[in-house]
């Protein structure tokens, strides 16, 4: 038998119900028991004849007054601590069994100010409307659940541990059933309760850390995090779907992962991404010590075909060099206008592990803070890559930023070497990544490139600025795999041809970030550095597979950066736009704010 010391009698105006102590100062009951707490005082007593302790409602499940409405939970805070041990909780599954488990409820119906006990059992572990479990009387006689039992703890008869709370009692004593709000459902509405309920894979410190992280999120400082979006990112493409009821809050999603999803790595990924939104670096570091589950580093699940439990190797397509059989593991940097002004951007950094994408950080920023934030998140994204991964840093930029010197950014505050010398680095066009038609055309072009030995380079020299952009787009769609520009997309004429090449879905575009210094006379360039650049480009790209260009350009940049010649190396300012949608699946994701 369990002691009744933590069972409580609750009064609020003319309403009387039950409750139970869960901390030295907090009592759980039903919201309908204290429905008039806005006008009537709430009192809590733990023994017959003792003076009621004043209390106030500090948390509410959102119950709106209807019997069938969910969230019939209220948390009361007492005026003072009480010197008694709070209730202890059983694991959620302990309420059910074969044979059924006997459950005891300690309530306060009329003429029972000292309380009385009713014996019940849970019909099944199936939730009614995603919220309640049906209760049936343990025997045909005995105390039924009637008014006064609402808010009573349901305890296991043999251990005295709590498995739920009575949330509905019959008005007619002849009806011998009722409803239980299971403890793990109540934890949706009060995060602190999650720390008290046993979960198989997580200790109390981990759950407390996650609760504090959710509590530290302030919607006024960052855009609203979508619980469903964070949940899907955490469980991956083949994880359990979002429940049909959806998630009412960030904590609701977090607790569902803790209590319902067996993959412990999913909780770590959820927490890490939420820490990114709150810029909680200490929490991010602490989360790396969490259990990661069976999926290896960072808890990211491997991608398999449905029903297949083995990691499937990715075969090299026909005609592709053997070196390309090992796919890229991109670190994706997306910089998009936020809609809040010309100098405000939404920045998101992700790491790909197979087809699974883990967002490392996402934040709206003014232009002057973008570089520092991106470099810090890129460095952090390497924690998500396997040791033998072929890293690729890919910047998705607005069209007016495509000539930005991202390859020359200093890698970190402690390393002045260019980012482009650290790893293969490419840029992509944001508008093109959002276009379903152009993405489809790019996929078709890569299928053709995989089946042919070399790629065709189309040269656009400095004298081509008067060319018709529409004709160029149509021509490039039919007969170009790569485009080389003699000058950067700065002047109006070059910019139009640059856009025409993007619209033609050319997979590879190269240009010098600094322009041609020659003078045009009668259509001929004298001392044209742009023409020389295209000549050297054609020489170095001859017979190279486009799929491997990021590696070759990286090696070329290393040579250029390390050169001590008096004149800058011809490839010192080389820019590479390279886009293979197969390496970065799900471009549709760009249509939505990652925090919306």
Q: Your description of this structure?
A:
By secondary structure, this protein is an alpha+beta fold. It has 15 helices and 25 strands. Helix 12 runs parallel beside helix 13.
Number of helices: 15
Distance between the termini: 50 Å
Percentage of residues assigned to helices? 25-40%
Main sheet specs:
6 strands, antiparallel, barrel
Structural class: alpha+beta
- Sheet with the most strands: spatial strand order: 1-2-3-6-5-4
How many strands? 25
Q: Any idea what the radius of gyration is? A: 32 Å
Quaternary state of the chains: single chain
Strand composition percent: 15-25%
User: What is the average per-residue confidence, as pLDDT, rounded to a whole number?
Assistant: 82
Uncertain runs are 219-224, 284-289, 291-325, 517-526, 587-596
Question: Which geometry do the CA atoms define?
Answer: elongated
SSE blueprint and pairings:
Elements: E1 7-12, E2 15-21, E3 26-29, E4 42-45, E5 53-60, E6 74-78, E7 103-107, E8 116-122, E9 133-137, E10 153-156, E11 162-168, E12 177-182, H1 183-186, H2 191-194, H3 204-216, H4 227-235, H5 250-260, H6 264-278, H7 281-287, E13 328-337, E14 344-353, E15 356-366, H8 367-381, E16 390-397, E17 410-412, E18 415-418, H9 419-422, E19 425-429, H10 430-433, H11 436-450, E20 457-460, H12 469-479, E21 482-485, H13 492-503, E22 508-512, E23 519-521, E24 524-526, H14 529-541, H15 549-562, E25 574-578
Helix pairs in contact: 3-5, 3-6, 4-5, 4-6, 6-7, 12-13
């Amino acid at each position: 038998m369990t002691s009744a010391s933590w069972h409580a009698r609750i009064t609020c105006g003319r309403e009387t119900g039950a409750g139970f102590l869960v901390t030295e100062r907090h009592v759980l009951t039903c919201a309908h028991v204290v429905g008039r707490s806005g006008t009537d005082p709430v009192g809590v007593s733990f023994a017959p004849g003792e003076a009621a302790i004043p209390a106030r409602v500090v948390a509410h499940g959102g119950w709106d007054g209807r019997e069938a409405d969910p969230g019939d939970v209220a948390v009361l805070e007492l005026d003072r601590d009480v010197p008694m041990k709070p209730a202890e909780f059983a694991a959620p599954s302990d309420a059910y069994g074969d044979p059924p488990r006997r459950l005891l409820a300690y309530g306060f119906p009329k003429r029972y100010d000292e309380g009385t006990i009713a014996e019940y059992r849970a019909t099944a572990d199936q939730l009614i409307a995603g919220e309640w479990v049906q209760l049936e009387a343990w025997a045909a006689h005995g105390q039924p659940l009637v008014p006064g039992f609402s808010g009573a703890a349901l305890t296991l008869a043999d251990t005295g541990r709590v498995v739920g709370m009575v949330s509905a009692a019959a008005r007619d004593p002849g009806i011998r059933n009722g409803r239980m709000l299971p403890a793990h459902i109540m934890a949706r509405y009060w995060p602190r309760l999650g720390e008290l309920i046993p979960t198989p894979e997580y200790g109390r410190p981990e759950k407390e850390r996650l609760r504090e992280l959710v509590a530290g999120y302030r919607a006024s400082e960052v855009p609203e995090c979508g619980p469903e979006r964070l949940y899907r990112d955490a469980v991956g493409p083949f994880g359990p779907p979002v429940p049909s009821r959806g998630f009412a809050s960030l904590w609701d999603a977090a607790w569902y992962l803790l209590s319902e999803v067996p993959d412990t790595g999913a909780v770590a990924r959820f927490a890490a991404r939420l820490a990114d939104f709150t810029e909680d670096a200490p929490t991010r570091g602490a989360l790396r010590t969490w259990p990661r589950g069976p999926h290896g580093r960072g808890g990211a699940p491997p991608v398999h075909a449905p029903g297949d439990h083995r990691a499937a190797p990715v075969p090299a397509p026909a005609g592709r060099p053997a070196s390309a059989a090992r796919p890229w593991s991109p670190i994706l940097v997306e910089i998009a206008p936020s809609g809040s002004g010309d100098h405000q951007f939404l920045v998101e950094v992700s790491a790909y592990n197979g087809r699974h994408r883990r967002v490392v950080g996402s934040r709206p920023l003014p232009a002057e803070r973008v570089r520092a934030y991106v470099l810090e998140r890129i460095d952090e994204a390497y924690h998500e890559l396997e040791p033998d991964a072929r890293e690729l840093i890919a910047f998705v930029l607005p069209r007016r930023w495509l000539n930005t010197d991202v390859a020359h950014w200093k890698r970190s505050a402690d390393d002045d070497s260019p980012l482009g010398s650290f790893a293969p680095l490419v840029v992509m066009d944001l508008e093109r990544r959002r276009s379903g038609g152009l993405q489809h055309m790019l996929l078709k072009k890569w299928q053709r490139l995989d089946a042919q030995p070399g790629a065709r380079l189309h040269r656009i020299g400095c004298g081509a600025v008067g060319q018709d952009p529409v004709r160029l787009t149509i021509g490039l769609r039919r007969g170009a795999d790569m485009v080389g520009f003699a000058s950067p997309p700065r002047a109006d004429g070059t910019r139009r041809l640059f856009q025409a090449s993007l619209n033609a879905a050319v997979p590879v575009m190269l240009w010098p970030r600094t322009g041609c210094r020659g003078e045009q006379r009668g259509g001929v360039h004298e001392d044209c550095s742009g023409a020389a650049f295209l000549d050297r480009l054609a020489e170095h790209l001859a017979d190279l597979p486009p799929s491997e260009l990021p590696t070759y350009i990286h090696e070329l940049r290393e040579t250029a950066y390390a050169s001590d010649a008096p004149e800058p190396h011809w490839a010192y300012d080389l820019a590479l736009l390279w886009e293979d949608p197969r390496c970065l699946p799900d471009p549709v994701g760009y249509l939505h704010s990652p925090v919306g």
